Amino acid sequence: MKKVRWGIISTANIAQTQLIPAIFRSDNAEAAAIASRSNKVHGVAAALNIPKAYESYEELLDDPEIDAVYIPLPNHLHKEWVLKAAAKGKHILCEKPAALNAKEAAEMIQVCQASDVKFMEAFMYQLHPQHARVKEIMASGEIGDIKLIRSSHSFYLENRESDIRMDKSMGGGSIYDLGCYSIQAIRHLADAEPVEVQVVSGRDAATGVDMLSSAYLVLDNGVTAIFDCSFDMVSRNEYEVVGTKGTIKVPYAFRPDINAGMGLVIVESDGTVRQEKIYGDLYRLEVEHFSSAVLDNSALAITAESTIQNMRVIDACYKASETGETVSLNAD
């Protein structure tokens, strides 16, 4: 089988612990090179069994044997390196959030399309089969008409002084880091777009970063949604869909990998409760999905349009958080 040859832009923890091991587990991908801005990259490459190591990102992008790159850099660097990778003809899997705002995301995607390269925002959770099952149950009518979607994503952030998520200039903040998942899930589940958002945030006094945000969204199909995200709470990664006849709860929505890949869909209707366990190796599924799209020129699960729209909602959430006002997302 032909394999996509991946280059990793950065020795970021998520690359070393999640994405690169998933490439090795994949059937249609290989980890061909890794780059860093220091000589520590050689030790990382040796430890992870990656054949090539570069001490600059540019060198990796100049390698003609690299087909696709994974970019897990800090949020404020995504645009720069997506544009540079596209210019070199590399397909791009970019960590979430794709950019700092919708304008940046649109520019990045326009360049990728003009360069004829694939681009996907790395919402790995969506590739786990539990979400397709939730959509099936919703479509079946078992829980009736959908009225409300609730989502929560949080963890307690340690070592805050040295964490880039506490740096506002680098795209730090709980909405960027965690709320983006809930926004994407709400839009995906409802097949609808937010038209109005209200947000209340608690901020870190020293940095101004939002440590906790709670949001209320009105969608264009009449469904309402609520999400919260926080660096200051116990770990949660869940959503609930509430209908006129029942509910669907997904307690391991965004990180089933920390539950041995097991997703859980809990359906309550007509006074009965049913649990469905659904397994999937979500980082491997992400790598194989993107690699297949490159090899077969097939469509991606997370589209460019969805990425831009997700950033529009993030923009609106931050505006609502900062002004304390209800923000409308106009149709254009």
UniProtKB/TrEMBL annotation:
Q: Which residues form a coiled coil?
A: none
- Keywords of this protein's UniProt record, alphabetized? Oxidoreductase
The molecular function GO annotations come to: nucleotide binding; oxidoreductase activity
Source domain of life is Bacteria
Which InterPro entries does the UniProt entry name for this protein?
A: Gfo/Idh/MocA-like_OxRdtase_N, Gfo/Idh/MocA_domain, GFO_IDH_MocA-like_dom, NAD(P)-bd_dom_sf
- The chain positions of domain Gfo/Idh/MocA-like oxidoreductase N-terminal read 5-122
Q: Does the keyword NAD apply?
A: no
Domain GFO/IDH/MocA-like oxidoreductase: residue ranges: 132-248
**Family in the record:** Belongs to the Gfo/Idh/MocA family.
Name of protein: Gfo/Idh/MocA family oxidoreductase
